[in-house]
Amino acid sequence: MLQPTEAKRVLEAALLAAGEPVSVAALQRLFDEEIGADTLRRLLEELREEWSARAVELVSLASGWRFQTRLDFQPFLERLRQERPPRYSRAVMETLAIIAYRQPVTRGDIEDLRGVSVSASIVQTLESRGWIDVVGHRETPGRPALYATTKTFLDDLGLRSLDELPPLEEIAKTVTLEPAPEPQAVPAADPQRDDLEPRAG
Amino acid sequence: MLQPTEAKRVLEAALLAAGEPVSVAALQRLFDEEIGADTLRRLLEELREEWSARAVELVSLASGWRFQTRLDFQPFLERLRQERPPRYSRAVMETLAIIAYRQPVTRGDIEDLRGVSVSASIVQTLESRGWIDVVGHRETPGRPALYATTKTFLDDLGLRSLDELPPLEEIAKTVTLEPAPEPQAVPAADPQRDDLEPRAG
Amino acid sequence: MSEIAAPVARIYGEPLAEMPTDLYIPPDALEVMLEAFQGPLDLLLYLIRKQNLDILDVAMAPLTRQYLAYVEVMRTRNLELAAEYLVMAAILMEIKSRMLLPRPAMTPEDEADPRAELVRRLLEYERMKLAAQQLDAMPQAGRDLMAASVFIQRAADRLPEVRVQDLAEAWRGLLYRARLSAHHRITREELSVRGYMSQVLRRLQERRVLEFTELFDPARGVAVLVVTLLALLELARESLVDITQSESYAPIYVRLAHASAH
Question: What is the ipTM for the molecules in this complex?
Answer without folding.
Answer: 0.63
